[in-house]
């Protein structure tokens, strides 16, 4: 005998979206202009709550679902929709398309970091719109007034935005926290050219290392005091600035002064 549905859902970290209005809003956020997305990959199609509105807005939709119990239901539901392809399996094992594509979905909260890492590593990804824990979305987008290493590190190539909030009562099983709609977009033109990205990664990694007890002290480990002072002045930062409080725009000023 298989596990009860609720037990299996918890094991897979599944919280199905049941709020239809929220699903429609999400689809419009994921694909702002219907018909402009040639290929959309959905992470964790579940019972199809997002699949249906997303399918109306793109040319081709590949809906990934890891739970084998749900795949037959999904395939039956969308059997008459030729541009929807239900794929049984773990999205994280999928090979990223070589042509431009988007990602959308209600991601299992416990796998958020891995799914976002997959998206960031895909060369042809144009954007990803994901339902995550609200706290995660707020942290990644600087909504708390603090910035994370991942956001700053990827800022020259990607934008991070919090597009909305979905109350926890809109899901089954009901999670402990509300959800946020997180959107990551690849910039049409990177803020730094390819030759400067390695230096950017090194600088940001050093700044977030925590060595020395402050951002200023961390950067001093690799750069002369005179240059670090000049960089802090250019960025409008005090010496006692905490690394998490430094927004990506100020990091760009630091990099401009400290790069070779």
What kind of sheet is the major sheet? 7 strands, mixed
Helix content: 25-40%
Multimer state: single chain
Radius of gyration: 21 Å
H/I helix tally: 11
The secondary-structure element order is HEHEHEHEEHEHHEEEHHHH
N- to C-terminal distance? 64 Å
Which structural class fits the helix and strand makeup?
alpha/beta
Which consecutive residue ranges, at least 5 long each, have pLDDT under 50? 1-11
Our estimate of the beta-strand percent is: 15-25%
Molecular shape: elongated
Question: Strand order, biggest sheet?
Answer: 4-3-2-5-6-9-7
Number of strands: 9
Mean pLDDT: 94
What does this structure look like?
The protein is an alpha/beta fold and 260 residues long. Helix content is 37%, strand content 19%. It is built from eleven helices and nine strands. It has helices spanning 5-11, 20-30, 51-55, 71-77, 112-121, 134-140, 149-154, 194-207, 215-220, 225-235, 248-258, and strands at residues 16-17, 40-43, 61-65, 84-88, 101-106, 125-133, 158-166, 171-172, 179-186. A seven-stranded mixed β-sheet has the order 4-3-2-5-6-9-7, with helices on both faces. Strands 1-8 form a two-stranded antiparallel ribbon. Helix 10 runs antiparallel to helix 11 (248-258). It is elongated, with a radius of gyration of 21 Å.
């Amino acid at each position: 005998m298989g596990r009860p549905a609720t037990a299996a859902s918890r094991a897979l970290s599944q919280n199905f979206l049941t709020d239809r209005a929220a699903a429609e809003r999400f689809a419009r956020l994921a694909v702002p202009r219907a018909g402009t997305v040639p290929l959309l990959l959905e992470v964790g199609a579940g019972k199809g709550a997002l699949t249906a509105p997303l399918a109306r807005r793109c040319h081709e939709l590949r809906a990934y679902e890891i739970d084998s119990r749900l795949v037959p239901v999904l395939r039956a539901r969308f059997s008459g929709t030729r541009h929807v392809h239900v794929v049984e399996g773990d999205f994280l094992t999928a090979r990223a398309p070589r042509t431009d594509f988007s990602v959308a979905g209600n991601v299992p909260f416990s796998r958020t970091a891995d799914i976002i890492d997959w998206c960031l590593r895909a060369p042809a990804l144009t954007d990803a719109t994901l339902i995550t824990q609200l706290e995660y979305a707020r942290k990644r987008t600087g909504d708390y007034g603090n910035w994370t290493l991942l956001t700053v590190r990827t800022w020259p190539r990607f934008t991070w935005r919090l597009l909305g909030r979905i109350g926890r009562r809109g899901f089954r099983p009901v999670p402990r926290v509300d959800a946020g709609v997180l959107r990551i977009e690849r910039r049409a033109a990177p803020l730094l050219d390819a030759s400067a990205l390695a230096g950017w990664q090194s600088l940001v990694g050093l700044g977030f290392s925590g060595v020395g007890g402050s951002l200023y002290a961390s950067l001093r480990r690799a750069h002369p005091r005179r240059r670090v002072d000049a960089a802090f002045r250019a960025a409008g930062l005090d010496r006692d600035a905490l690394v998490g409080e430094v927004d990506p725009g100020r990091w760009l000023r630091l990099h401009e002064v400290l790069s070779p």
